[in-house]
Structures are given as C-alpha cells and as structure tokens.
C-alpha cells in the first residue's frame, strides 16, 4: 500500500477552485517531486496533506491515516517544511528552536540531545547551534527549519521549496541529506522549481497546472509522452498551455 495516497482531492475557497480532482500516490522510501508554477495548487495540496487545510472533497491518506478522520495520527508521522517565512523564534538560539519543537513532539531530554547532535552534524550547523537565530542569514535559518522538521524522526517528510535561500554548497548538502534519508526508508515529497534538483533526486513526479494534475508518473514516461527531453522546456510548455493537457 502506498505511504501517501492523494485520492481525487479538491479544495475550494468560496468560488475559487484551488485544487481540482487531484490523484497520485507515493511509495515507501520514495523521493517524489511535485512541480507547478506559482498558483498551480501544489502548496495547497501539501497543506491538505499536513492537515492544515481540510479537503473540500476527496481524501488524503498518510500511512493509511485519513487527513479528514485521523488528523492527529497523520501529524505524528509527518515532518513539514513550507517555503517563505520559516517561522523560527528570533530571540532563541538554533538549539533552543529545535528543542522547543522536539518537546512538542514528546521527545525526552536524552533522545532530543541525540537528535540535535545528529542533525547539527548532517546539516553542518555546529558552528551556529548556540547563536540566536535573529542574526542568521536566510540559508542558516533554512537549515534550522529543516532540522526542526526532522527532529522527531518522522517517517514521511513534506518539503515545500526546501532549498530556498541555500547557496550551492548548502543545496548540495541538502541533496546528500535527502539521499541519506531515503536510505533510512523515509518517504519524501518535495516541491521545487529547480528542474535539475528534481531530476537528480526523483524518479517519479506530479505536475500541477491551474489546480489540476497535468501529469503523474516517471520522468522518463513524461519525456516519451511529450517528445521533449529537457525538463525546463517541458515545464515551460505546460505553463504556456502546450503539450501537457492531460495526465
């Protein structure tokens, strides 16, 4: 059974149809890419997965738990990072920010210390773990936010534009981290506008356009479908209304 099942889910805000009849699934240990231009509906879809928004129709199941009927169980097994403002407490240190969220997830002091040591090493954060976040660069803040997302060792990880603000070195670190998490059996769904990043990390993808699913399947299958090779060209063809009219 897939770890993530998006089952014909729709979300409306009044008359606005933000997401319409979207369906795809993600298998255990898979790194799955979610693509789409701004306003395509991918963040709304991820917010429904995270139980922040409730679907208007359809359902999403995470490890068999319904976001509609079992939101608490869903939240226990996911880690979430959304783009934009990463929502850290500027007067607290990186360590204190991560510890705060670890405590919310019920980690005891020993486990929390172990997790922070592991994450600070994985994300190359040791030099600034005990500095206040208020003076951090965007990339440093993003690393803390990623550590906060992973502190409770979730089975399913939702990442919306996770490399925003990261320089080339840090972005490479992120890719190594994703590979390591995949080796550990984690299931990862992430959105990105970086086609090279998607291609390096993912075998299967979903592309959204104007709230609908334009494609769900393998990258190779997508290339065969549209008779194009470059993912950037394929993405632009979708945005401009050509080549990807249906799944």
UniProtKB/TrEMBL annotation:
User: Where would I find the ABC transporter domain in this sequence?
Assistant: 4-235
Domain of life, per UniProt, equals Bacteria
Any Pfam family matching the protein: ABC_tran
Gene3D superfamilies membership: P-loop containing nucleotide triphosphate hydrolases (3.40.50.300)
Listed GO molecular functions? ATP binding
The alphabetical list of record keywords is:
ATP-binding, Nucleotide-binding, Transport
Show the PANTHER family listed in the entry.
ABC TRANSPORTER ATP-BINDING PROTEIN, ABC TRANSPORTER ATP-BINDING PROTEIN NATA
Instruction: Tell me the protein family, please.
Output: Belongs to the ABC transporter superfamily.
Record-given protein name: ATP-binding cassette domain-containing protein
